UniProtKB/TrEMBL annotation:
It comes from the Bacteria. Its main location: membrane. InterPro entries: TM_pro_TauE-like, TSUP. It is a multi-pass membrane protein. It comes from Actomonas aquatica. This is Probable membrane transporter protein. Belongs to the 4-toluene sulfonate uptake permease (TSUP) (TC 2.A.102) family. It holds the Pfam family TauE. Keywords: Cell membrane, Membrane, Transmembrane, Transmembrane helix, Transport. The lineage of its organism: Bacteria, Pseudomonadati, Verrucomicrobiota, Opitutia, Opitutales. The chain crosses the membrane at residues 6-32, 70-86, 93-110, 130-156, 168-188.
Length: 244
């Protein structure tokens, strides 16, 4: 199960974004069923491994102006998530992670149904303001620290900016690489990244790289809608399991 979840991390970074939530809930449900908090820290180095491949693959398409808007607010959100994680037990963490996953699935479905998030009433282009970037940044920071589940929020922002496919991938790849590296000291402080967890990461890292490389190959060919639907519903079911 851990190897499957690790491969899903790699695939989510270079091709099928929805699989990122599936990997989160697989680790929380089956790999760490009695320690949901530990799963958040354990997964982080694996996410960074996937980020490395994604950045190498798509960095030339990064739109840095959008990252400059998001980073300060995401950092503030990470601080809030760090404070929350230091004050909750494993059962509360399960409820929080499950709730976040369900909300992220709902947001993702809403985003898909709302095709014109960056258009005005007359169909004209609308530039989203800094308040929107601040909201997305803070929420992404909290959710990425607590549950490594900020992908749908970032997708909402990037799609609202109406970025083409490759710019979307490049900007998202650099954002998550930098933000995940920024999270490491907080996870170490919470003792959710330890020498023991690092040994497990070393065993699973090859599966992440394999998944990421497969994602690079299949991205131009996959039926994105089908895979995204499967990933979303699998995430929703697993999130419900965490809640109940």
């Amino acid at each position: 199960m851990a190897l499957t979840a690790a491969m899903f991390i790699g695939l989510s970074k270079t091709a099928i974004g929805g699989l990122g939530m599936v990997s989160v809930v697989l680790f929380a449900n089956f790999v760490f069923p009695e320690a949901a908090k530990a799963s958040s820290g354990f997964v982080l180095p694996l996410l960074i491994c996937g980020d490395v491949v994604a950045v190498k693959s798509y960095r030339a398409h990064t739109q840095w102006q959008h990252l400059g808007r998001l980073f300060p607010w995401a950092g503030l959100g990470i601080l809030g998530g760090w404070l929350a994680m230091g004050r909750i037990d494993n059962r509360q963490a399960s409820l929080l992670i499950g709730g976040i996953v369900i909300v992220m699935v709902a947001i993702h479905l809403w985003r898909r149904r709302s095709k014109a998030t960056a258009k005005g009433p007359g169909g004209e282009e609308v530039e989203m303001g800094y308040a929107f970037a601040a909201f997305i940044g803070v929420m992404a920071g909290v959710t990425t620290l607590v549950a490594n589940a900020a992908g749908p929020l970032m997708a909402i922002y990037l799609l609202s900016m109406r970025l083409p496919k490759m710019e979307f991938m490049g900007t998202g790849a650099v954002f998550f690489f930098l933000i995940n590296c920024f999270k490491v000291p907080f996870m170490v402080n919470l003792e959710l990244i330890t020498w023991e967890s690092a040994k497990g990461n070393l065993l699973l890292a090859p599966a992440v790289f394999v998944g990421a490389l497969i994602g690079r190959k299949i991205l131009p060919k996959i039926d994105q809608r089908l895979f995204e639907n499967l990933a979303l519903w699998a995430s929703a079911l697993a999130g419900m399991k965490l809640l109940f």
